[in-house]
Every structure is written in structure tokens, then in C-alpha cells.
Amino acid sequence: AGSGKFFVGGNWKCNGTKESISKLVSDLNSAKLEPDVDVVVAPPFVYVDLVKNSLTDRIEISAQNSWIGKGGAFTGEIRLKPTFSFLARDFIKHFCLYVSLTISHNVEQLTDIGCKWVILGHSERRHVIGEDDQFIGKKAAYALSQGLGVIACIDAVPSWDNVVIAYEPVWAIGTGKVATPQQAQEVHVAVRDWLKKNVSAEVASKTRIIYGGSVNGGNCAELAKQEDIDGFLVGGASLKGPEFATIVNSVT
Ligand code: PEP
Questions:
Q1: Which of 122, 124, 131, 243 is catalytic?
Q2: pLDDT per residue over 36-76, tens digit each?
Q3: Span from the CA of 178 to the centroid of ligand 1 (angstroms)
Q4: Catalytic-residue membership of 94
Q5: Per-residue pLDDT reduced to its tens digit, 192-210
Q6: Are strands 96-100 and 117-120 parallel, antiparallel or unpaired?
Q7: Which residue among 63, 76, 217, 247 has its CA within the 20 to 30 Å range from the CA of 239?
Q8: What is the model's pTM?
């Protein structure tokens, strides 16, 4: 693992029923989790409230998507109002970003239902749903319009503390084909170098870069040993409480 606090996110995607999610929550509540790890789960929107009301506060909640602007006549969308957010256009093409939200005095839907995070730019949103760079860029623009800089003014970002970058090779997502620890390490180093050149050495060293793509209880330990792997984004294996706990506890 790298020098930042280990981060493990579970993306439940469009899975679960009240019954299976209650079981998952109860497994997570009774799991023993290493204390020095940030743990976040992203339930389907319809179950966020159920999860928020039953899951231990030890685990934070993420949204799986957000709208490009203020609320209104946008059937099926979810609005947010971040007071801090960031989306780098170069990253939009390659990475899924987790953007942390802080509670705003104008409570909007995501914060109202207890989400502290939102996933933006996941490859499933691009390839299956059809979101393109332009649309994701609009989401970014809305987030940026809340008082923050754009990629060209990246050094105007006031704080990178709550930004986590997930590197997820598309061929590894949900396929059972995991990147080798060396492959992942190589890309994570490249991302860190990008940050160093385009932002600052300090941000490069403290921003957490996590790996996603067929991580499971069997392969997490070797991946976690890599110097630049600061955690994981987990899909399928996050639906099994004990296995997800093994992944959280793989921090080295
Ligand atoms: C993901 O969708 O972000 C993911 C990493 O999925 P899986 O772990 O199932 O490959």
C-alpha cells in the first residue's frame, strides 16, 4: 500500500433486494474491520435510506451518480450541490473518480439522504448507459461551477484531501480477470507522475490512487502490497460482506 490512508469502496451497482441488502448490511455491521481504512459503500439509490439507517457509521455511503446541475424537471435524476468537487478532463477519459462532498448549508438530495461521496465517470455509465466525455464534462462543469477551478487551473483546487482516483482497466471490470500487481503498480505510478507534473509533488504523494477490476478476497493481499496501490474499488466482491471485510483488512 502507499502512504495515504487505505481506501476501499464497494460499488453495489444495480444489485440487491431489501432482503439481500439487509443481510449484507448485517454482515458488514458484524465484520471486524481494520481501523485505519476508509470504507465506503455505494448502494443503489432506492436502498440508500435503508442502508443509511441500518449500517454502522464506521462505513460511509456513496451515491452512484449525480445530475449535471440544480434540480428541476429531470425525470429519474438525482441532484447534488457540492461545496467542493473536482473533475480533471484528462482523467475523465481514463479513470473513474470518487469525489467527496462536504455538507452544504443548502441541503440537496445526496447530502439529505446521507451520501458523502458520489461516483462519477464509471466505465459502465459510459459504455452501457452511453454517457460521453461531454456529458460527464457537464457534470464536472456543474461541480466546478460551485466555486472551484477547472483542470487548466488545477492548482486553484483548494484541497485534494477528499479526492480519490480509481484506476480501473475496463477489461478487468466484472470479468474475473484481475490486473497483475505489477501491471496495476505501473499504471498507478504513471497516474502519480501525472499528478506530480500537473499539480504538485505534495498532491501526488498524498492523493490516494485505488485499483478496481475483479478484486476479491484471494487476490487483494498481493495487490495491496504494491507501493502505489492505496486501496480498492470493488464491484462483485463487495456484495459479500465477509469477503469485502477481507479486502478492507488487506491493508499492509
Ligand atoms: C467496478 O465496477 O468498479 C468493479 C471494480 O467491478 P468488479 O470488482 O466486479 O470487477
A1: 122
A2: 999 999 999 899 999 999 999 999 888 787 777 777 777 77
A3: 10
A4: no
A5: 998 898 888 998 998 889 9
A6: antiparallel
A7: 76
A8: 0.82
Torsion region of 98: left, alpha or beta (phi above 0 gives left; psi -120 to 50 gives alpha): beta
CATH number attached to the domain at 6-248? 3.20.20.70
- Centre of ligand 1 to C-alpha 66, Å, is 19
Task: Look at residues 89, 19, 90, 32 and name the one whose alpha carbon lies nearest to residue 59.
Answer: 32
Report DSSP state, residue 179. P
Beta bridge partners of 148: none
Q: CA angle, corner 45, sides to 245 and 162, nearest 5?
A: 60
Q: Hey, whose CA ends up nearest to atom 7 of ligand 1?
A: 235
Tell me the best of 168, 177, 178, 246 to mutate to test the pocket of ligand 1, counting ligand atoms within 8 Å of each CB and taking the most: 168
Cα–Cα dist 184/229, whole Å: 8
**Cα dihedral 128/133/139/143 (nearest 10):** 140
Looking only at Cα atoms, what is the longest distance across the chain? 48
* Residue in the structure block whose three cell numbers are 485505488: 210
Please, what's the b/e burial string for 194-207 (b: 16 or more CB within 10 A of its CB; e: otherwise)? bbeeebeeebbebb
Whole-number Å distance between alpha carbons of 26 and 62:
18
Rounded Cα–Cα distance for residues 176 and 179 (Å): 10
Q: How many helices (H) and strands (E) does the chain have?
A: 10, 8
Complex ipTM: 0.95
